[in-house]
Design brief:
There is one protein chain. The protein is of the alpha+beta class and 215 residues long. The chain folds into 2 domains: 6-95, no CATH class; 121-213, Endonuclease I-creI (Roll), CATH 3.10.28. Helices cover 20% and strands 26% of the residues. It contains 4 helices and 14 strands. Strands 11-12-14-13 form a 4-stranded antiparallel beta sheet. A two-stranded antiparallel ribbon has the order 1-2. A two-stranded antiparallel ribbon has the order 3-4. Strand 1 and strand 2 form a beta hairpin. The longest helix has 15 residues, at 155-169. The two termini are 29 Å apart. The relative contact order is 0.12.
């Protein structure tokens, strides 16, 4: 594998030399075609000197593979028809035909992602506002977050943040708006209940891989 090859883990994208036994990797079950998180059971790294097969297509798939490497491929009947709904199978590089249309490089049923999201849409939207245009309280023992916006220059953006403040206030959280007479800005403050969560998923305004990969 080259240095650009990565796998999606619970902790975000990792290069092959960063993955360790026990890391959970987003995986495709060839039998059920279900996508689930599965722990890495072992890592096998070997040297190879011999003929390599170059596979590429117009969708960004571009690999060099050894003859014995295994691939998930779709079932094809004797007439050459591909059955995507049938269980997939593993085949070695050297046993594949000259066409790479059999290769399964995506799709599947998202069993890894819960039907009910972990974070509500309003919180995800607020995280984006805090990361791009907000700030954290710096006083000790205070964990609120603030977002400032200009009602005059950006009325639509201000309305969106105000809608979020109304949403969280209706659920019992601290969410207030104060006008700055000096510069005309509207300062929106979200208290500890929300600030603690945002600091967890975006410490120092850096979104964590776990938040990005959460259902």
């Amino acid at each position: 594998m080259d240095e650009g090859t990565q796998a999606l883990t619970r902790a975000g994208w990792k290069h092959h030399d960063e993955i360790e036994r026990g890391d959970e990797v987003l995986s495709l079950d060839p039998g059920s075609m279900e996508i689930t998180w599965q722990p890495v059971q072992s890592m096998v790294r070997t040297e190879f000197s011999g003929q390599l097969f170059h596979w590429r297509n117009s969708h960004g798939f571009d690999v060099l593979a050894a003859p014995h490497q295994q691939w998930v491929v779709a079932h094809r009947d004797r007439s050459g028809y591909t059955h995507l709904g049938a269980p997939a199978r593993l085949r070695s590089t050297e046993s594949l035909s000259g066409s790479n249309k059999q290769l399964i490089t995506g799709g599947g049923f998202p069993g890894a992602f819960a039907a009910v999201p972990r974070y509500e849409d309003a919180l995800v939207e607020l995280v984006a506002w805090v990361v791009t245009e907000g700030s954290f309280q710096k006083q000790r023992a205070r964990t609120g977050v603030m977002v400032a916006q200009s009602p005059l220059a950006n009325p639509a953006k201000t309305a969106k943040i105000r809608r979020l403040a109304t949403h969280f206030a209706a659920r019992g959280a601290t969410a207030t708006e104060h006008s700055n007479a000096g510069n005309g800005m509207s300062n929106f403050f979200f208290g500890t209940e929300i600030g603690d969560v945002i600091r967890e998923v975006a410490p120092d305004k850096q979104i964590t891989p776990g938040f990005l990969a959460s259902p």
